[in-house]
Amino acid sequence: RIAYVNGAYSSVLTPAIRIEDRGYQFADGVYEVLKVSGGGVRHIDRHLDRLGRSLAALGMRWPMGRGPLTQVVRRTVALNSLRDALVYIQVTRGVAARNHLFDANLKPSLVVTVRSLKLPSARERDEGVKVVTMPDERWTHCHIKSISLLPNSLARQRAADEGAREAWLVDRDGFVTEGSSSNAYIVDEEGRLVTRPLGQEILGGITRSLLLEAAEAEGIEFVERGFTVAEAQAAREAFLTSTSAGVLPVSTVDDRVIANGRPGSITRRLTDRLQRLELASDDG
Ligand code: PLP
């Protein structure tokens, strides 16, 4: 596998990161994950828009212009000759002798890697997946796509140890924020799609924004509000979204089966519509 690191393309195995990169020592950086399908990078503009918002929120500079970064992404994808893949873009504040204080003029470090994408299995799509809930122990700026992912990683591991595909994180008031690496949705008793509004408690998923557009196009009513674990367990349908998983039906929440345990019709319609949106977004 070939990676781009600060101006050069080389094997991902080549040592290339400095010990005193602030990403390594302080998790001082942001990232993006993009999907490649059929050799085309999907929704690159939306991802670069979000990268810009993450950088701005932390007072970081772009490592290079959007145009050149787009070219680097495409080149890295091409060098890896993968048709279905995930692109990882990481920008850290730069290299400096370890000190909490930082200089505004550091030169950001840029890494781009590509790896093959393991799509959810047919069984996961047909039967849905298990999620377990746990307290949301992250910080108060979850709208920033920060590389500081230890709470997310620990939650995901705990979910896997309990045989679940994802952890749904719950705030102090008992409302689900999102998954460890996905957004969370239910369909309520009136058949409305429900998902938490954008805010500092969740990452504004690219798939989330596409999904709400798909709902609009399908004439499916949606409401952006929080929902509790009990509401999710009593919901007609539940699902999660992310760039890598797309739309994934949720069949159980903390061992309570959702409806009849099969993916519902709204989940299916949104899955189909999103697929069409993806194919239409051939960014090349
Ligand atoms: N929420 C969190 C915490 C995430 O890490 C992710 C993606 O990894 C998402 C939501 C989904 O975002 P997207 O649809 O942009 O992949």
Automatic annotation (TrEMBL):
SUPFAM superfamilies cross-referenced by the UniProt entry: D-aminoacid aminotransferase-like PLP-dependent enzymes
Pfam families reported for this sequence: Aminotran_4
GO BP of this protein: amino acid biosynthetic process; branched-chain amino acid biosynthetic process
Xref: PROSITE patterns: AA_TRANSFER_CLASS_4
GO cellular component term, pick one: cytosol
Keywords annotated in UniProt: Amino-acid biosynthesis, Aminotransferase, Branched-chain amino acid biosynthesis, Pyridoxal phosphate, Transferase
Primary enzyme class: transferase
Protein family (similarity comment): Belongs to the class-IV pyridoxal-phosphate-dependent aminotransferase family.
Protein known as: Probable branched-chain-amino-acid aminotransferase
Species whose genome carries this gene: Arboricoccus pini
